[in-house]
Fold this protein.
Amino acid sequence: MDIHYQNADEAIQLVKSGDRVFIHGSAATPRVLLNKLLARAGELKEVELTCISTYGDLAWNRPEVLDSFYLNSLFVSGNVREWANGSHGNYVPVFLSEIPGLFREGILPLDVAIVHVSPPDQHGYCTLGTSVDAALSAVRNAPVVIAQVNPRMPRVLGDGIIHYSEFTAMVWADSPLPEVDYSAGADERAEKIGRHVAGLIEDGATLQMGIGSVPDAVLKQLTTHKGLGVHTEMFSDGLIPLVEKGVITNEHKVIRPGKIVSSFILGTKKVYDFADNNPYVSCMDVAFVNDSDIIRRNPKVVAINSAIEVDFTGQICADSIGTYQYSGIGGQMDFMRGASLSAGGKPIIAMPSTTKKGVSRITPFLRQGAGVVTTRGHVHYVATEYGVVNLYGRNMEQRARLLISIAHPDHREALEQAYYQRFGKLYTVLK
């Protein structure tokens, strides 16, 4: 194979003023090429960057960058949060499962896709590595595709296998992947929540885990379970010990039995090495992975996701703090709905009872401007360090009482007063 690699400065010249550019995300954020693109600030005008979630240091916070580039984010991550909430950025509310369709159907037509891939094998095939998600659709629908080829990117099997001939330009860049250690954020509260949630998980269940220390804490409590499967939008290091102990076997799944199914991987080098050329792992298009009709076919689907706040009626805000866009809808609703439709399934919202500043996450009303990610019609289980309640089939008053029972004790009196103001009766423990 005669593969020609260009230098980054040359390849990034393919981006023109007025282009909409997809940026590969999570651990596959192509930081070398993205920073080279941002370095063209002042030269380019009205370039729109479209991404799901980027990681690593990005040199965006400069006036000349903001004058040249507009961020149109499909999920807001910490390193661009201020950009997305500023005058030169914004957020598109969308289910993660529907993002590939935005590119495919021309709702967000792409001019360029910048992706981060593993090196070509002996047959010339690269992989999209740690993040297939919507990147596969971007590659298929952008007329120009620039690939950052990295020997440290794991070769992850599944849908994201791309022949090098499909790339308009290729740049060799040996650089470490961004790493996130979710276990480092665990505390006593997360451990208690993990125990509560683990008690809801039956042998033979199919797991979906969201992002953060709480899902990781749940996994640590599953070491005595049997025959668990995994069909999830993402996974991290916490899954590996359960595979090694034989807890995760994927034997009871209907969809891709015998395989861990995900759309992206984010964690430390340990999980990237685990996924590398591992036929047990299948990273697939998120339009398939997060399709609620696909999810529901697996048995006993347990979806574990988190929230920023929950109101008395069960409305789940998971993407914003008031009007401030903190993250995004992501795949929460895809899996909450899929789990609720699965035979024996359990959709779970798991969160600490308070923020780090001591503010109650259980509130009479959502903050003004807050976004509802999971509606009160879809909510089932809610867990904090003080217990688990099931809101499904309960009326508004009953829901409020159940939620107050798992709120932080320091806030229960104020919540009981709010309950009285709303319902016109004194708070009593629900039988």
Q: What stands out?
A: The chain has a mean pLDDT of 96.
